Amino acid sequence: MLDVAALLSVGLAFFVVAVSPGPATLSNATIAMHYGRKPSFVYGLGLSTGLVFWGVVAASGMGAVLQASLHVLIGLKVLGGFYLLWLALRSARAAWTPDADDQAPVASRNLFVRGLVLNLSNPKSMVAWMAALSIGLDADDGLPAVLAATAVCIVVGFAVNALYTVVFSMPGMMRGYRRCRRWVSGAVAAVFAVAGAGLIRSAFNP
């Protein structure tokens, strides 16, 4: 069983990865500023559930299998890249939409699915998991240690998404977003486009 220091190292490493700005965190922040706390919380649950999937893949050793299976990994990266490009298109359209036309409510179920698909479509999440787990795990650590480290990372993942929800759904954040909504949507579109193109490019340039 891992000691507390090792678990803290794993948790801190995963926190740094999870809290860093990227497509998932930026989209969660945008939804929090646009729709408020509850919709963002649902979206964050979808993101976190997607992270759990890749955590199970990494912890079970399937991560190494996927990395060794070139064609599967290429397919996952291409699909994930095109999904990010589709999100970039949606954000770009939102940037061109007048404020009065962009206030329609969105179903919680749709938000959960969107968050889930976003993280499921990004195999780089698996690499982040493997990197974090490798910091605190040794080759001779058994299943209890792997499960403990994975559980810590899962808790951290949910906490990070909840943190983004709480911070960016504050009234001041939401007022600022409403004033600059179209600029924010344009910036998010650019981030998604760069991330999607980069993911597709990495599929053919390992």
Would you give an account of this structure?
- The protein is an all-alpha fold and 206 residues long.
- It has one domain (4-15, 23-204).
- The chain contains nine helices and no strands.
- It has helices at 4-19, 23-35, 37-59, 62-68, 70-96, 108-120, 124-136, 143-168, 171-204.
- Helix 1 runs antiparallel to helix 7 (124-136), helix 1 (4-19) crosses helix 8 (143-168) and helix 2 runs antiparallel to helix 9.
- It is globular and about 60 Å long.
- The two termini are 35 Å apart.
- The mean pLDDT is 81.
Q: Return the average pLDDT rounded to an integer.
A: 81
String of helices and strands: HHHHHHHHH
Q: How much helicity do the residues have?
A: over 70%
What is the tally of helical segments?
9
The parts where pLDDT drops under 50 for at least 5 residues are none
Please summarize the sheet with the most strands.
none
- Radius of gyration over C-alpha positions, nearest whole angstrom: 18 Å
How many beta-strand segments? 0
Q: Per the principal axes of the C-alpha atoms, what is the gross shape?
A: globular
Question: What structural class results from the helix and strand content?
Answer: mainly alpha
Distance between the termini: 35 Å
Q: How many structural domains in the coordinates?
A: 1
Proportion of strand residues: under 5%
Quick rundown:
With 206 residues, this protein is an all-alpha fold.
Question: Layout of SSEs?
Answer:
Layout (H helix, E strand, L loop, with lengths): L3 H16 L3 H13 L1 H23 L2 H7 L1 H27 L11 H13 L3 H13 L6 H26 L2 H34 L2
Helix pairs in contact: 1-7, 1-8, 2-3, 2-8, 2-9, 3-6, 3-7, 3-8, 5-9, 7-8
